[in-house]
Records
---
Amino acid sequence: MGQELKLAEFKALYKTWKRNVDWFDQLLLGLLVWIEQKLTDNRVKTEVDEAIKEWETLHPVNTVSPVYTEKPSDTSTRLPEMRLTVSWYNDIYDEK
């Protein structure tokens, strides 16, 4: 797999800066490919982050803190009964 440029801007830069000296042209091509990859990665990361932020503003996530309860136990005199539940959970034992 050889090095090749994908974006038209970088292809135009390479054609303009090319000097027909093998070592210089290979160095230039390698540098332009590296810069192009970094630029493309940065663009993709930025676009994905912006799309995630936009989606989160349109679809807010409802985060509800869990509820901690403690009451005396029916079976033990020394240890209380402790529960950690969320608001959407309905326990059949809580409906007394």
---
Amino acid sequence: MTTGNTFENELATLIFNASSIVNIAINATTAPLTTLAVSLHTADPGEAGTMATNETSYGAYTRVAVNRTATGWAVTNNSVSPSTNITFAACTSGTATITHAAIGVSTTGSAKVLFSGTVTPNISVSAGVTPRLTTASTIVLC
């Protein structure tokens, strides 16, 4: 089964920009999610994984919350990109190679993953390195 292009884009704006889909879905009216959490991973969290699966653990790392608005996410032609660079805390200790990123619902714990994908090029993290995902980072929905 495939999804129509218009609906793909509407679904992306519902999830990333909190915009309703006329006659189908509205953003939650009671306690809606206002941000999405972005995490960095040293391997694919997988479809059955959580945001904690293979999540990096370098010194000072934390997930980053990004607003569910057009100022947080650009949705165009069935793809999603950050509207501004997503900058993570600078590494204070340890090393890691970031190969994947995930978008989910919480900045802590084993929250569900909504989307995940490969980070290209991979990010080599060591003391003093500040990882970031740029506006060129794209999530293609279909």
---
Amino acid sequence: MRAAAVIAGAAPKDAEGFDWWAGNAEENLEEFRAAELGGETLRRLLEAWRHELLEPTGDDIDESLASLGSLVSATDRAVVTPELSAFHAARRRHSISTSIWGWFDDDLSEMKPWGFEIGSIDVPVSVWHGEDDNFVPRSHGEWLMTNIPGATRHMLPGEGHWSIKERRLDEVLDVLTDAARP
């Protein structure tokens, strides 16, 4: 690998001296507390949420965004077009159409150590995080920026979780391409 970019990434759960829970939206707190307990507790929660999340088609933006509660910041709400709403709804329906098990495994993986020392990263990494991100707290992005050796910091005022991808993806790719050049 020559270079990497992290967009709205979470810090490791076991990061020393870091309050992984601080700043999380209520929906994240509920989900990740269930993930810590694992098994039946997490399964029941995700099954209940699955039924709610399968309903919105994306045709009604307000209905689709309401299903995500406080995770969607005003900044992210502002970039949601009918097309983006339909895309997110279709992607969500596809990913959980038959079961919750991929989601379940993803949540459990958030609770586990990464399996490598962050100090061992030896390629250029640019970390991009929106100050208005309600999906992944700003403190996670700040932790990554501080702890990844030589990370290029992009803490972006006026950006959220989705808005970076909608408004800045070309910039992210340009920085990544430049960093990967020999």
